[in-house]
Specification:
Number of strands of chain A: 11
Helix content of chain A: under 10%
Distance between the termini of chain B: 41 Å
Strand content of chain A: over 45%
Number of strands of chain B: 12
Largest sheet of chain A: 7 strands, mixed
Radius of gyration of chain B: 14 Å
Distance between the termini of chain A: 37 Å
Number of helices of chain A: 0
Largest sheet of chain B: 6 strands, mixed
Order of helices and strands of chain A: EEEEEEEEEEE
Order of helices and strands of chain B: EEEEEEEEEEEE
Radius of gyration of chain A: 13 Å
Structural class of chain A: mainly beta
Oligomer: heterodimer
Chain lengths: 113, 117
């Protein structure tokens, strides 16, 4: 099956710093990737749609200047949380769309201290 | 726009018992349907999907689901559960109009399946 690799799986950073999360589709090309955020014991909330070679589309209420998304190739999308604050602490998950469905990375647990 | 309702937030069952996790959706257009499983602190693993064809879909780990268009449901079933099936299960839909490789998903709130010995 399709494999999506997300890195890092967990990260702790200081308030005010930036953190980059990578999402790679390992065995298929993904023109579209999605970034989700999941709060404890809750469902996934779509943050943005990442399209290869173009600007990301953000959902309402998501700050595009805070959550920078880059989709430079058909196999890699990155999410950078800029000037992170404790309220940004969460579980971030990416998914990559192939013809057979949407496949998810392992998730990244971000803790901002 | 679509919405997904998972009617049960928690489902406790005993090992080897059958289980059904319910999912209903609302949409003004045709949709694709998915079930995912999430273990603690992990991403989502695709259990099964309905894209077209037979309305009875078989997935991994012995799970199956049936698409019922008239009832707008896509319930997940397993005839005999194991302790290892304890996890969070998410039902999701995607608008068919978006095309074959653009699965923007709308998720239900999830159902925690707890299998007890």
């Amino acid at each position: 099956g399709a494999v999506v690799s997300q890195h890092p799986s967990w990260v702790i950073c200081k308030s005010g710093t930036s953190v980059k999360i990578e999402c790679r589709s390992l065995d298929f090309q993904a023109t579209t990737m999605f970034w989700y955020r999941q709060f404890p014991k809750q469902s996934l909330m779509l943050m943005a749609t990442s399209n290869e070679g173009s600007k990301a589309t953000y959902e309402q209420g998501v700050e595009k200047d805070k959550f920078l998304i880059n989709h430079a190739s058909l196999t890699l999308s990155t999410l950078t949380v800029t000037s992170a604050h404790p309220e940004d602490s969460s579980f971030y998950i990416c998914s990559a769309s192939g013809f057979e469905g949407a496949f998810f990375g392992q998730g990244t647990r971000l803790t901002v201290v | 726009a679509q919405s997904v309702t998972q009617l049960d937030s928690q489902v406790p069952v005993f090992e080897e018992a059958p289980v059904e996790l319910r999912c209903n959706y609302s949409s003004s257009v045709s949709v694709y349907l998915f079930w995912y499983v999430q273990y603690p602190n992990q991403g989502l693993q695709l259990l099964l999907k309905y894209l077209s064809g037979s309305t009875l879909v078989k997935g991994i780990n012995g799970f199956e689901a049936e698409f019922n268009k008239s009832q707008t449901s896509f319930h997940l079933r397993k005839p005999s559960v194991h302790i290892s099936d304890t996890a969070e299960y998410f039902c999701a839909v995607s608008d068919q109009r978006r095309g074959g490789s653009n699965y923007k998903l709308t998720f239900g709130k999830g159902t925690l399946l707890t299998v007890n010995p």
